[in-house]
Sequence to fold (273 residues):
Amino acid sequence: MNRVVVITGASSGIGLEMARQFAAGGDRVYALARRLPDSVAEPSEAAAGSWFTMPLDVTDAEAARQAVTRIAAREGRIDILVQAAGYGLAGSVEAMTPTDAAGQMGTNFLGACHLLGPVLASMRARGSGLIIQLGSVAGFLPIPFQACYSASKAALAALTMALANEVRPYGIRCMLVQPGDTRTGFTEARVLCDADESLPYAERCRRSIARMAADEQNGFPADRLAAKIIRQANRRRPPLVYTPGLFYKLAALLSRVLPRRWVMAVLYGLYAR
Fold:
């Protein structure tokens, strides 16, 4: 039986590539996004009949509940939920307004929470399911001038770890994916705190953002990363935490074993000098 896969943030980047590849593999995919461009309005020939699109703003809890209800009623089940919706907020903490912070956490963290309740109820009733959360290396290596984004991904990581033990007795598994720099539309969609230009951080912040953007545009291709994630998801026992790429696996290890001041010094040199 082909799986039913629901993917948020499926208008571009990793979410879109995962939707394409799950569908090409024969799964029935529901691609959800706030705005779906014409290029993803119809399934590709390789996935004809197995790709369905649906508009959804993940910050709208009621809309999220209704979307999940419609999909579960149509399909009878949801086998995999991929939460890829999100964006990056850049700027100094001093420049960040409450509105900036609320928007970042509302999308990257609360947006994920809004789908979990109804999806988990459906999975628990069937006694199986897989939740894939798109976190970030920034969740365990907080990036200067990207503090709120890092905080949102750290919160998502903690949520996933706690959730994994809650749902384990019901046959539901969780997988936190922590990608590093990836070539997607994330770079162009980054939101900047307006007040930085009037603060003494301005020049350092510009350099930091330029470094982030360059690293991302030279990063891992989104289609190859999506393929790696799907291979892990297809394992009989998907890993609880998956950090793609040898460099980032090493970074994760060193962040745990090295003195914190050393880690902070490296981050300062890369993104805050």
Summary: The chain has one domain: 4-271. The CA atoms of residues 94 and 180 lie 26 Å apart.
